[in-house]
Design a protein that fits this description.
Layout: H1 7-33, H2 44-98, H3 105-126, E1 147-153, E2 160-167, E3 175-179, E4 182-185, H4 190-193, E5 200-202, E6 216-220, E7 223-227, H5 233-242, E8 247-251, E9 258-262, E10 270-273, H6 278-281, E11 301-303, H7 307-320, H8 323-377, H9 381-405, H10 410-414
Antiparallel strand pairs: 1-2, 3-4, 5-9, 5-11, 6-7, 6-10, 8-9
């Protein structure tokens, strides 16, 4: 026989009321958060999958942000290159006019003055900065200028003008991840963008008896090349040519010294990595305390200049009225530099198109992953509201029932 005390109905009602209130509270929280997994215990498997999917969504959104930022920076850089191309078109026109011997010395001096002003603007473009203050064309040294100028007296001008423009950035590109394990260059080294001629670097040291003394590595224009103990100069030449670097190595037939020639206009950038001394021994590197390109040996011969070099030569030739120099090397150098600038602008345009495709793909991927996550954790709002209303009705009915049960007192049991 079960004994029923006075407090038992009250305790039971309160117990089940609390359970109903917990259910109501949980359902209200689910509706407010739009999620049916508020705690891991609600659905451990769905919660685990959701964490993975949300992590993937965050990475996709970060990749999209990276692609958008690089695209924006690329468009700013492309606008500056278009300005440089316009300047070079005008300089090319002046070079063609200056090569015509019908112009007087006063006319060529006036042309030289215009070229000098255009040169100044070209230097300003090469040292341009983004809105955040970082430089565009200094490689991965984005807090410093890309080019440094030196001035001295120029014959025929009567004053000191810029006579040398030196690259002080790096040739290393900053890389930004725009997809899983996929990176894209986010910087533009000026010693490639603003170069006009293929550069030739020739050692003056006979390398016939050279061999690599220990395993070491060399760095050639963006490519690291591993060398092995005992490699002779022919093996070094072959490894440079097979490395994919934009440089062609050969041996001078007279001196038997090594010669490096760029396959596309840029400044040769070489280093001995680690404790290696290969380039020092074959006479290409001299001052190892200086970083490239200022580490070239004093007795090595370098030819092939930058866009600024050819513009400066043209300006100086116009000041002196040297029609032969203007019509031969000057005009050809200007046209080579102009063509190379157009090529660089074309590369930026192609990269912009690729980044747009990447952004569209990432947007589609993000939407698909969000849909998968939504199926796992998001609630059906209509169903949840119906369930909440049902719980509310049950709770109200329970309260009404309790109101009828609780009024009896001890006197009711003694009667």
């Amino acid at each position: 026989m079960k004994r029923v005390s006075t407090n038992l109905p009250n305790d039971n009602i309160q117990h089940f009321m609390r359970k109903q209130q917990v259910g109501l509270h949980r359902m209200q929280n689910k509706i407010a958060s739009q999620s049916k997994v508020l705690n891991l215990r609600d659905n451990p498997i769905a919660a685990a999958h959701s964490v993975v999917l949300q992590s993937n969504i965050s990475r996709l959104q970060k990749f999209a942000a990276n692609a958008g930022e690089i695209q924006g920076r690329g468009r700013v850089a492309e606008a500056h290159l278009q300005g440089a191309i316009g300047i070079m078109h005008r300089i090319n026109e002046l070079a063609v006019q200056g090569a015509n011997s019908t112009f007087s010395r006063e006319d060529t001096v006036m042309m030289a003055e215009e070229v000098n002003q255009l040169l100044s603007e070209l230097i300003e473009i090469s040292n341009a900065r983004y809105g955040d203050g970082t430089t565009m064309f200094s490689g991965d040294r984005t807090l410093s200028l890309a080019f440094r100028t030196t001035s001295s007296h120029v014959e025929g001008s009567g004053r000191s003008l810029v006579t040398n423009v030196e690259f002080i950035g790096t040739n290393r590109n900053s890389l930004t991840e725009i997809s899983e394990n996929s990176y894209i260059e986010s910087s533009f080294p000026g010693n490639s963008v603003f170069w006009a001629e293929n550069q030739v670097l020739m050692s003056s040291r006979n390398a016939d008896s050279f061999f690599v003394r220990e395993d070491s590595s060399i760095y050639v224009s963006g490519v690291t090349i591993d060398l092995r103990t005992g490699d002779n100069i022919h093996a070094v030449v072959a490894k440079i040519n097979d490395s994919g670097a934009p440089v062609r190595a050969s041996l001078d037939p007279v001196r038997n010294s090594i010669v490096l020639t760029t396959t596309q206009p840029h400044q040769i950038w070489i280093e001995d990595l680690g404790s290696g001394t290969v380039f020092q021994e074959i006479g290409l590197i001299g001052n190892i305390t200086q970083r490239p390109p200022h580490n070239i040996a004093n007795d090595a011969r370098v030819s092939g200049g930058s866009l600024f070099d050819v513009v400066i030569r043209l300006r100086d030739s116009l000041f002196t009225g040297n029609v032969i120099e203007i019509g031969s090397g000057g005009l050809q150098g200007i046209q080579n530099g102009l063509n190379h600038l157009i090529l660089q602008a074309g590369k930026l345009g192609a990269r912009d198109e690729r980044l747009q495709i990447i952004q569209n793909r990432l947007a589609h991927q993000t939407h698909e992953v969000q849909a998968m996550n939504s199926k796992l954790v998001d609630i059906d709002l209509a169903e949840a509201i119906m369930e909440l209303r049902m719980l509310e009705h049950v709770h109200q009915a329970s309260l009404q029932t309790a109101a009828r049960i609780l009024p009896p007192t001890l006197l009711d049991f003694l009667r």
